[in-house]
């Protein structure tokens, strides 16, 4: 798979309608953690997360007839927000299924958009399976939040920007849910510079990818509630992201809830950024394994910031 060509083309396809987010050097985090730390602020991306990249790339691949019939998808929030924005740009109808466990803030944002929003099931997997059935029954395209090459290539444009802004990067740490973001970033960076190390971070309460990598097959685990709700949920059978993660990712780090909370607080204290739990995972991973990154040039992908001020204040006790 030519990640360089596909992701370069994806970037040309979407760049006029996304924000090129900043890559900021953090002197305070560098001093604290013993690495040269840079933050990729995807929390400041349009719709509040990186998801618009993959969503827009996918929508622009559809035929006119597919767009006319409309599309179906499922989301815990960020994918839905990105896809809704992309559909508005391309004037495509969207029916979106959310699990009943989706955060109130993200559900509220989605309900304010021109989307047919339906709550179904107690997990991401159940919402996705139902959405796929509806798409098939109504002859519409189903768009996965992560299990789609066009989505992966769109998310990989984060890696494209990182390498342009910091060509001598040593390590990149990425939050992981279904694996679309890390697969795109890792596939691109490893294609260009194989010695760049890629690390994924998951909450201990929802470590589906880490458990699957360890088992060498996609597995189910007992999931618990997590502050990183945007990455919650399992990996569907046959997902393209699983073998990509096996091939390109050095290690998957898992972090406890208290460390996610501390990372959210630290990003606010040092950079005045309100970041959701999933967005703070990369910093949590660095804090968890700081010896692994000592003296190296490290990029932390801050994947999203869709959390209300009130909820954020409650979590970090402002």
Structure in a nutshell:
By secondary structure, the chain is an alpha/beta fold. Helix content is 46%, strand content 15%. The chain has a six-stranded mixed β-sheet, with helices on both faces. Strands 5-4-3-6 form a four-stranded parallel β-sheet, with helices on both faces.
Count of DSSP E strands?
Answer: 10
Measured by DSSP, the beta-strand proportion falls in: 15-25%
Which stretches are poorly predicted, pLDDT < 50 over at least 5 residues? none
User: How does the overall form come out from the CA principal axes?
Assistant: globular
CATH class wording of the largest domain: Alpha Beta
Indicate the CATH architecture of the largest domain. Answer: 3-Layer(aba) Sandwich
Radius of gyration: 18 Å
Stated plainly, the CATH topology of the largest domain is called: Rossmann fold
The run of helices and strands is HEHEHHEHEHEHEHHEHEHHEHHEH
Main sheet: strand order? 1-2-10-7-8-9
Counting DSSP H or I runs of 4 or more residues, the number of helices is 15
User: Main sheet, how many strands, which sense, barrel?
Assistant: 6 strands, mixed
Class from helix and strand fractions: alpha/beta
* Spatial gap, N to C terminus: 47 Å
> Average pLDDT value?
94
Q: How many domains is the backbone divided into?
A: 2
Query: What proportion of the residues is helical, as a percent range?
Result: 40-55%
